[in-house]
Amino acid sequence: MAEEIRAEMVANVWKVVVSDGDTVADGDTLVILESMKMEIPVIAEADGAVTIKVNEGDVVQEGDLIAVIE
Amino acid sequence: MTITPAAVDETAVDYRDPLVRLRALFDQGTLRTLTGQDDSGVVGARGEIDGTKVIAFATDATKMGGAMGIEGCRHVVDAIDIAVRERVPVIGLWHSGGARLAEGVTALDGVGQVFAAMVRASGRVPQISVVLGPAAGGAAYGPALTDIVIMGAEGRIFVTGPEVVRSVTGEQVDMERLGGPEPHGRRSGVVHITTKDDDSALAEARKVAKLLGAQGRLSPADVAEERDLAASMPPEASRAYDVKPVVKALLDEPGVELHNKWSPNIVTTLGRFAGRTVGVIANNPLRLGGCLDASSAEKAARFVRMCDSLGVPLIVLVDVPGYLPGLGQEWDGVVRRGAKLLHAFAEAVVPRVTLVTRKAYGGAYIAMNSRSLGATAVFAWPNAEIAVMGASAAVNILHRKKLAASPAEEREALRANLIEQQLHEAGGVQRALEIGVVDDIIKPTETRKRIAEALANAPAARGAHGNIPL
């Protein structure tokens, strides 16, 4: 089942750490957001192949899709 | 070929049998029932947990799905009243469809008496609920009124079951999605601890009962040895990290985290520190940058009030960039719900020590057990920053015109200079020390010892109030 990872808060996408199709494990950092002067890692919550839905420099709103893990 | 039905083992015990469940909760051989053999659907009992006396009751799911009538409700009330008289924890094991329909309003009256008994006991003895099966209607609000709710994998809590939901609104939903461990552990905050099975649910109840029922004595000598609490933290102040290893390093042994999936930007853990039970509250920068928001303030406020009412001292680990800004938060009641945390700390009389590890900004600084709210002691690590806002944000506001007027190539150097100046004048921990909102700057390695001494020097006290499920 696909696991959707969504933004918990409004933030800038500072760094995309993994590439589309990479195999990731639960706990891996996928993307680093910047908000409230903090670098906030977005963590995988499942194992699988990842598709990243954002680009560096994007602004995400709460609830926006960041990545999908299949 | 004939198919023969599997042999039914007549001696097999029904796992739903309340006596089976109570035996699994207590130390072996310590169970004594308080109620006779009857059809009430509730068994009350006394027993021990690692030698600590407790009272417990269990609904009997083998009789009418555990539905509660007036007689069963009286057993629950008696159990709670005995626990209050003897000043011991009371544990409820729930698996019940709610009030007995056949008894009508008499059953409702009984369920109401159970609620009233729970509220009378609130803040006087620890009340723990373990939900092992469906707990519906009245049986849902019973656990919800208690201090800590633990849910096994088969546990379900809802006011109205899937069939009623379907007939009234047409919404199709199953019991698990309506009121299982996932929705209540992550979304609603009804459940404090979810477990993979019944045995672990009972094991967690034993741990919590022991922490709250046998709190132990503080022995600062036990934590004199140096331990670097900053070992798992990144050197850069802007980098997020998980605060849980820091909480683990603070405590003598791993504690019990409450609400670990709900509002994870604040961590609330019961555990042993220098031999005594304490409550730890810590911002978690890994989630939402560690910001306070409406639901995390409410979560922490309830934890503070529970600990205060049960006489459990508090340790507050602060690393907070502020309150989460935005429309969603304002509409969610961040002002009303955030005020609960201010109220809870300012009201608390238990010893409560604050440690600012990296930063504390703005209103969130005040809310995290600041000196002004009556903290027993406030410590800070050497590089901590306490300010109305971060130095760089403050410079951008205070010196906007100056920065705009400067030549572009010199702007960044000027900005860095102004940030340095701002840190010195308004932010650095030195200034907080001078004005007395921080008592001392301490090293991460001596943190355990200093917190233990500060807690030990404060008079033991206990808030005279109940623990309303905020």
Automatic annotation (TrEMBL), chain A:
Residues 1-70 form the Lipoyl-binding domain. Pfam families: Biotin_lipoyl. Keywords: Biotin. PROSITE patterns: BIOTINYL_LIPOYL. The keyword Zinc does not apply. Coiled coil: none annotated. InterPro entries: Biotin_Carboxyl_Carrier/Decarb (IPR050709), Biotin_lipoyl (IPR000089), Single_hybrid_motif (IPR011053). This is Biotinylated protein TB7.3. It comes from Rhizocola hellebori.
TrEMBL record, chain B:
Residues 224-470 form the CoA carboxyltransferase C-terminal domain. It comes from the Bacteria. GO terms for cellular component: acetyl-CoA carboxylase complex. GO terms for molecular function: propionyl-CoA carboxylase activity. InterPro entries: AccD/PCCB, AcCoA_carboxyl_beta, ClpP/crotonase-like_dom_sf, COA_CT_C, COA_CT_N. Coiled coil: none annotated. Residues 1-224 form the CoA carboxyltransferase N-terminal domain. Pfam families: Carboxyl_trans (PF01039). PANTHER family: PROPIONYL-COA CARBOXYLASE BETA CHAIN, PROPIONYL-COA CARBOXYLASE BETA CHAIN, MITOCHONDRIAL. This is Putative propionyl-CoA carboxylase beta chain 6. It comes from Rhizocola hellebori.
